[in-house]
């Protein structure tokens, strides 16, 4: 019950922060459409679902609050910015390790910060592509995003936002939910000492029983 109440409260607090962030985007980026801001908010909501339970899981590793906060900050920077930079470096023509980058991407998505960072980047790529095709249509009479392919080849296969393709956020959302559920279940198992109880049960079953004719004093001495 404690962790459930804590999660609800922390998630509501996190959502207040997300709404403030969206309001700031709406004020200072007037070109952003309402639907685009809603997509960013959706990704942030899923990020909270994935990251908060993982943070609770980390609390069992530290007895000192400051050490825990320091670790969380370092963890966010490493798994978010650094891992994303590694993937982009591997895709450079001079390195030409795009297959390795794609494989690592599936692994890095386990980390909520990377899933958030990459999801925001994918949103920017998709929105920029749609805007570029729309701008090209402004100079052609009767042009739409569907017919823009006739003049601009890059507009022929615009990626969808909620897809499992490389440029899409469906994978990110799925990973965030899966990580959140797994971490929260792990927290409950640790809190209720399930692993310790299972270990004790297995140890008790492996413990040899004393024979019927064995002296009680000898048995007591062995059990010490």
From TrEMBL:
State if Nucleotide-binding is listed as a keyword: yes
TM ranges are 6-28, 40-62, 68-87, 173-195
Principal cellular location given in the protein's record:
membrane
What InterPro entries does this protein map onto?
ABC2_TM
Q: Name one GO cellular component term.
A: membrane
Q: How does it sit in the membrane?
A: Multi-pass membrane protein
Tell me the keywords, alphabetical order: ATP-binding, Membrane, Nucleotide-binding, Transmembrane, Transmembrane helix
Q: Which domain of life is it from?
A: Eukaryota
Q: Which residues belong to any copy of the ABC-2 type transporter transmembrane domain?
A: 2-189
Q: Where in the cell is it found?
A: Membrane
Q: Give any GO molecular function from the UniProt entry.
A: ATP binding
Stated name of the protein = ATP-binding cassette sub-family A member 3
Can you name the source organism? Culex pipiens
Organism ancestry: Eukaryota, Metazoa, Ecdysozoa, Arthropoda, Hexapoda
């Amino acid at each position: 019950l404690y962790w459930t109440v804590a999660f609800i409260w922390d998630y509501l607090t996190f959502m207040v922060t997300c709404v403030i962030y969206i309001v700031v985007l709406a004020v200072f980026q007037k070109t952003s459409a309402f639907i685009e801001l809603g997509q960013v908010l959706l990704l942030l909501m899923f990020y909270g679902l994935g990251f908060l339970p993982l943070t609770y899981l980390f609390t069992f590793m530290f007895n000192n609050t400051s050490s825990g906060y320091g670790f969380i900050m370092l963890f966010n920077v490493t798994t978010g910015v650094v891992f994303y930079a590694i993937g982009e470096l591997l895709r450079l023509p001079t390195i030409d390790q795009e297959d390795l980058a794609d494989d690592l991407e599936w692994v890095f998505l386990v980390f909520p910060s990377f899933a958030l960072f990459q999801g925001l980047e994918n949103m920017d790529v998709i929105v920029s592509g749609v805007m570029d095709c729309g701008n090209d249509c402004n100079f052609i009479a009767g042009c739409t995003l569907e017919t823009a392919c006739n003049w601009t080849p890059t507009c022929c296969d615009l990626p969808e936002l909620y897809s499992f393709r490389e440029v899409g956020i469906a994978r990110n959302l799925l990973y965030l939910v899966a990580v959140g559920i797994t971490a929260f279940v792990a927290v409950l198992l640790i809190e209720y000492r399930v692993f310790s109880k299972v270990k004790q049960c297995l140890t008790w079953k492996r413990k040899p029983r004393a024979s019927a004719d064995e002296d009680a004093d000898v048995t007591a001495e062995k059990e010490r």
